[in-house]
Every structure is written in structure tokens, then in C-alpha cells.
Amino acid sequence: MKKLAGLLAFAFALAGAIFLTQYYGSRKPAPPPPPPNAPAPPPQAPDAPAGANVPVTFKTQLVTLDFASRKAHVTLDLERDPARAAPEKVWVWAYFFTSEAGRRYCAGEPVEVSRPFAAGNRAPVNVEIKVADCPAPRNASSTYYARINVSSESSFAARLGEQRISYDITRASPVTVEGAQPKKR
């Protein structure tokens, strides 16, 4: 009976040790408090590209996809960190998709915008992008979406690689469609 009681006590002690190790091992330490009088980090725009040190943030205002002219129009509000030098150029790139076309998208080349911050730290920008091979709408109520990317580095950095293309409509901008002819079945 003493051996059974000892074995039972050992099992409870081992289970308790495993439980405590799991509990304290999964807890993340609290971040250190900011130093006194430290400036708060600037808020990030909802459409800003990922990364903490983004020199230009943006908010998409309007996106139009014109099937007849094979062009898209994108209106953005750009904002830059006033503590950093204003970029001389930015490149805007967009890709368009509909949930009806599976995992297909269409896009054009990134568009260069020169001196967007000539008048200050915020700038409204309108760009026209030539697009080709957009999936035709299946019916008049087809919904299209756009994902926009802005880069102050280069046109290459503005274009997202295939592995970063997302068809998640919750983070995409709805698109106003013009000149579309529904696909004939």
C-alpha cells in the first residue's frame, strides 16, 4: 500500500510539474514600459504595407476598373512621416480579382508618381493603370476587388510577388466596374 501511495504521489507531482512548465512556458513577458516623454508611435493607415518602418502610408479612396478602355483609376491619400525626408517618387501598383474567377487576377505595371509630397506631408494621388486579361464578369452583379501597394523604393518593390498575392476580400478595396459585358455561357 505504501508503494502505491508513493507511486500515486509521484504521478501527481510529475503531472503538476508538467502543467506548471506548460503554463509558464506559454506566457509571454510583458513589454517594457516606454521611457518617460517618449513620443507615441504614429498610427498606421489601414491599407499600409506590412512593416514597422514604412516611410509612406496610404488609404485607398476609390478604385475604378473600366473593361472597355482596359484601364483602372486609383485614388489614394498618401501620408509620410514628417521626421523623415520626403521621397522624390512613389510607385503605385494594383491588382484586381473577383471571387467568381477562382485564383486569377489581373494587373498592370506600377505607376510612378513624381514629387507627391511637394505641398506637405499628405498628398491625394490619382493614377491611371493600364490592365489586361481581367477575368470577365459572369453577370451584371459581379463584384471585383483590388489590392493596392505603394513603394517609395522602386517599381519592382511596388509589385507584389506571387506568394504575396491574396484573395482575401476583407483586406481588399471594392472596385467600381465600368464597361463590363457579362461573360456568355
What does it look like?
This protein has 185 residues and is an alpha+beta fold. The protein has a domain at 56-178: Immunoglobulin-like. A hairpin with a 7-residue loop joins strand 3 and strand 4 (106-107). Strands 1, 2, 3, 4, 5, 6, 7 and 8 form an eight-stranded mixed β-sheet that branches. The chain has helices spanning 2-26, 155-158; strands at residues 56-66, 71-80, 89-98, 106-107, 111-114, 122-130, 144-151, 173-178. Mean pLDDT is 80; it is low at 41-46 and 48-53.
Taking the alpha carbons of the first and last residues, their distance comes to: 81 Å
Question: In the CATH classification, which architecture of the domain at 56-178 applies?
Answer: Sandwich
What gross morphology would you assign? elongated
Strand content: 25-35%
Q: Report the average pLDDT across residues.
A: 80
Q: Kindly provide the radius of gyration, computed on alpha-carbon positions and rounded to a whole number of angstroms.
A: 26 Å
Number of helices: 2
Structural classification? alpha+beta
Helix % is 10-25%
In the CATH scheme, the class of the domain at 56-178 would be Mainly Beta
Topology-level CATH name of the domain at 56-178: Immunoglobulin-like
Biggest beta-sheet profile: 8 strands, mixed
Number of strands: 8
The succession of helices and strands, N to C, reads HEEEEEEEHE
